[in-house]
Amino acid sequence: MADTSYTPIKTKDYLSLVGKFPDNAPITVVHMLQFNDVAIYPESSPHASLDPVSGRDAFYHRYIPAGAAAAQEVGITPAETRFFLTTVVNLLPHNDVAWDVVAARRYQSFSDYARYQASEAYTKNAVPHRDAALKNWSLVACLDQDVPKF
């Protein structure tokens, strides 16, 4: 669905962050997602003429397959989904974002993740669907650690 209220989602330059992570250490990226009621594509997008769908459907059926194809094209090991959960309620009063989904995806390294995110295959084929699908989004890159003993 075309809409003039479309605003692309800004991300950091992930390639510039590679040095903050150990070489070849797996990372887990926690995704907090809030979907648009209806996917919003800019009028200039080649996807503007697609049948209208919910943001959730655009994410699941357009973005995820395009992202998987981009990972394959870039030559990285596909991310492992550690969890993918529908949220019910936010329990803290200082953060009233109504996330629809919280997910965690594990990558072989931050370098792989950054290279994938910066690739033309990802930015051209997956990003338009991600941006159309999401109303709000937060990502946190995490390193594994031993669970503290209690």
CA-based gyration radius:
16 Å
**Helix proportion:** 25-40%
**Cross-sheet strand order for the largest sheet:** 2-3-1-4
**Which class of secondary structure composition applies to the elements?**
alpha+beta
Shape: globular
How much of the polypeptide forms β-strand, as a percent range? 15-25%
Mean pLDDT: 89
Polypeptide structure, described:
This protein has 150 residues and is of the alpha+beta class. The protein has a single domain (14-143), classed as 2-Layer Sandwich (Alpha-Beta Plaits). It has four helices and four strands. It has a four-stranded antiparallel sheet. The chain is globular, with a radius of gyration of 16 Å. The termini are far apart. This is EthD domain-containing protein.
Features:
EthD domain-containing protein, alpha+beta, 150 residues, 4-stranded antiparallel β-sheet
Characterize this entry briefly.
The protein is built from four helices and four strands, in the order βαββαααβ.
Strand-helix topology:
Blueprint: E1 27-35, H1 55-74, E2 80-86, E3 101-107, H2 110-118, H3 120-125, H4 127-133, E4 134-143
Antiparallel strand pairs: 1-3, 1-4, 2-3
